[in-house]
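agent> Task received from the user: take the single chain below, predict its 3D structure, and emit C-alpha cells. No templates, no multimer pairing.
agent> Plan: (1) validate residues, (2) run structure prediction, (3) serialize to C-alpha cells, (4) report one or two observations.
agent> Step 1 OK, no nonstandard residues flagged.
tool_call: predict_structure(input=
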Amino acid sequence: MTAKLYDKLVDYSKNGRYPFHMPGHKMGRGIDIKDIFAMDITEIDGFDNLHNPTDIIKQAQEDYAALFGAKHTFFAVNGATGALQAAVMAICGPDDKVIMARNCHRSVYSAMILTGARTVYVMPQYCGVSDLPGGITPESVEEAVNENPDAKAIIITSPTAEGVVSDIRKIAEIAHKNNMVLIADEAHGAHFMFSHSFPETALEMGADIVVQSAHKTLPCPTQSSVIHIGGNMVDSEKVREALSIIETSSPSYVFMGTLDWCREYLEKEGRKIYPEFTDFLINERKRLSVLKNLRLLDKDVCGKYGIKDIDVSKIVISSQNVNCVEISQILRQKYNMEMEMGCHGHFMAICTISDEKEKIKDLINAIIEIDKHIVPNKSQKHNLKFTSLNRVVSLRNAYYSKAEDVPYNEAAGRVSAEFLIPYPPGIPAVSPGELITEEALENIRLLYESGVEITGVKYQGLEKLRVLS
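)
tool_result: status=success, residues=469
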C-alpha cells in the first residue's frame, strides 16, 4: 500500500498552485526556520513543561503577553478549538447560561457539550448581499442580557472568517455592567495590532478572554494558537487548569517554538512590515471597483449591518446571482490559485505578510477577468441566513440522547441529534438539540447542491438525518 495522504501532500507542495488559504506562513514562504523535525522534542531537561511552566515556556508566554497587551497569555497547541473550549470551561459549568452569537464556530458549540452550559443565541445581521453574515449589534446583546441577567458569559466571534468585526467595545461595556465575562473568538485577527489599517483588537476594546489562531494569519504552523487574558474578571489559573484538561499532555515544541519565534519577529519587524503591506493591499483592492457582476466586501459596509470594521487582508467577493463555488473552481483550475473558501454566495482569499505581492496582483487581475465573462443567473437568489432555530434540548443532553435516522425530507419538525455544518468556515446551520425547520433543510440542500461540503453529519449525501428518538 502507498502512503496516499503523504504522497498527495508532497505533490501539492510541488504543483505550483498558489495558497490564498491558511496557514499564514503560506507553505513556508514566511518561516525562516529549518530542520523542524530536529526541534520536535518532548519535555526533556531544560525545556520546561507547558502544563506547569516555570522557566523558558513561562518566559515565552510572558513575552507574548507583553507584545499583545494581555495580562496573561497561554500557548494553545490544540488550535483555537481547544482554546475556546478551555475558555468556556474556565468560566461556566453545568446549566450555566452563555449568551453566544449564533454564528460562533463549531468549537464553541462543542464547549457547551463538554461543560453542560446552556446557550442563549444572539443573531448576526446580514450585509444585504448574498449569504454573507454581518456583525452582532450591542443592542441585540443588551436585549439578551436583560432577558438573561443570570448568564455567566457572552461569546462573540469577531472577526468572522470573512473579516467582519462587531462593536466589541460596546459589547464589553454591556458585559461588565452586568458582571459577565466577554469571550472574543478572534481566531482570524491575530495580526490586527500591527497596522492602523486593521480593526482594533478585542483586547484593546475590553474583551476579558481573547482566543487567537496565530496560524491563520501569522507565519506559524497549523494549530499554533493562544489565549489572552485581559482585565481582572478572569481567574488565569482556572484557564491554565482548563487548558491542561482539554489539551494534549504531549504539546508540540515546534508549535510553541514557532510562536516564540513569531513573537520576536513581529516585535522587531511587525510595525514596519504591516503598514507597508496594508497600503499595498488597499491599493490593490481599489482596482476591484471595476467589478460588474461580483462585489468586494469593503469599508462601505462599516456602520451598517452591525459591522464596526472589516479586515482588509481578506479578499471577500460575493454575488447574489453567481455560484461562487464555481468561481473558486475557475481560480483553481485556470489560474492555479487555491482560495480559503468557496461558498454559495461568496469566496475568499486570505492575504498575509508571507504572500508574494505579484501573486496578489495576479489574483486581483484574475478576479477582474473572470468578472468580465460571467453570465449571472438572475433566477438564482441567495437567501442562506442563519435561521433562529428553537433549542428544545441542551447541546449536552442532545449529544447523550438516543437517536434514529430519518429520510432528509421527513426531518422537519424533529429535533436534530447531529451537527449540520457548511464547511468552511465551520458554523453550524443546525446543532444537536435544535428543532429542524423546513427553511433550514432548504438552505442546507441549496448549499449542498451548489458544491458546499456539509460536515458533522452521518450521511454525507444527506439521504438521511440523525434526530432524537
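agent> Step 4: summary for the user.
The two ends are 42 Å apart (CA to CA).
agent> Done.
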